[in-house]
Amino acid sequence: MDLFEKARSYLLSIYKPFPIDVDHGKGLYLYDKNGKAYLDFLSGIAVNALGYQHPAVQQALLKQINRNLHLSNYFIQDVQVELAEQLVELSGLSKVFFTNSGTEAIEGILKVAKKWGNQNNKSEIIAFEGSFHGRSLGALSITIQAKYQKSFFPLLPNIKTVPANDPEAFNKAVNEHTLAVFYEGIMGEGGVRPISESLLKAIYQGRDKFGYLIVADEIQTGVGRTGAFYYYQKRGVLPDAIATAKGLGGGLPLGAFVLNDKLSTVLQRGEHGTTYGGNPLACASGLATVNVVKESGFLSQVQKTGVYFKDQLQAFAGQYPDIVKEVRGEGLMLGLEVGDKASDLMAEGCNQGLLFNVAGGNTLRFVPPLIVTESAVDEAIDKLHKTFARIFK
Ligand SMILES: Cc1ncc(COP(=O)(O)O)c(C=O)c1O
Questions:
Q1: Which of 1, 30, 131, 139 is 20 to 30 A removed from 103 (C-alpha atoms)?
Q2: Taking a C-beta distance cutoff of 8 angstroms, is the pair 324, 312 a contact?
Q3: pTM
């Protein structure tokens, strides 16, 4: 049996993997066992912020491997504390709880919010149509997409669903019973859709009026992806809590929720916990990653390359006016809405040596490593032309 047959025999058929027998990654590229290179604009689904084999991450990991791999939260762990300090400074919030994934960060915040709501007589959570916050039963309850939810009802009660980017509907939905609003600054899985200024304003003004909590899901947008450390900073707002993951671990499984002062005393000792969350190896990798992302000039470079990439995608779209409906996104989180051939384009892109995926069913999503260069963008656009030529010949 070859590797692909073995995978079909032994793994649940949940995913549809690329037909690549991966050997290793280096910088912006993945290489298969025959040496074929793939320009990786998927980055492990927006995880590999510094690409593959970044020396800062490798050195930090090697150092930590020679100390300990795991201790548990029965110990104060120096790398974990240092990373928490960075996250507090970079987020403008107060306290951190580390998790192993984005979903678990959302689950933790749901618990904080529920307890705070019980104390303050508030019960309704607002979530937006098209959102994605994870697939555990709590996170799935606020992931408002029928394809993910439909087989798993009943989910959590007291979730009110509001159409995306409809401030009037939002204003009608919130009141003194509203406990929390969960939002993504840019819906990732939902199709790379930035939140409109009018909805963002309504969310933050509603908090002043009704005193609910605002939770920004920064799992995909965070750690520099949009050219700011967190996307809410680019939009000039400050949520009460954020969920962060993906790029945070520099390739290792790491997430966190970060709370403001008011929320940081809601959970008492014993009310929450995790065996692995904040594991020292993941935190060492995360700390090295964050230290690079916060270096002077790094984020402005992400912003600059992001603008260049978006301009190139717009020029590309101009050449396929009957196919490309829209170019969306910010920084290095960009989408090209192309309609029902999106999955075919993704497969052909792989053939041509360019990796990206489909979001929202009809949109090609590009989330390259944050170290991507303008010449790599040019290479991607060239491969995209070849991909379109094959599919629409
Ligand atoms: C915005 C958002 N929230 C939550 C999640 C879930 O994170 P994880 O897959 O790490 O559990 C994702 C993952 O794609 C995401 O994009």
A1: 30
A2: no
A3: 0.98
Q: 34-74: per-residue pLDDT in tens?
A: 999 999 999 999 999 999 999 999 999 999 999 999 999 99
Domains of the chain in sequence order: 3-54+296-391 (3.90.1150.10), 56-293 (3.40.640.10)
Q: Is 276 exposed, middle or buried (0-12, 13-18, 19+ CB in 10 A)?
A: middle
Burial class (CB in 10 A: 0-12, 13-18, 19+), 290: buried
Contact 355, 38 (CB under 8 A): yes
Give CA separation, 110 vs 133, 160, 206, 334, in Å. Answer: 11, 14, 20, 29
Three-point CA angle 385, 387, 392, nearest 5° = 95
In this structure, the residues whose C-beta lies within 6 A of any atom of ligand 1 are: 45, 101-103, 106, 132-134, 184, 188-189, 217, 219-220, 245
For position 235, what pLDDT does the model report? 98
Rounded distance, CA 131 to CA 190, Å? 6
Q: How many CA atoms lie within 13 A of 117 on its CB side?
A: 20
Cα(49)–Cα(64) distance, rounded to whole angstroms?
Answer: 20
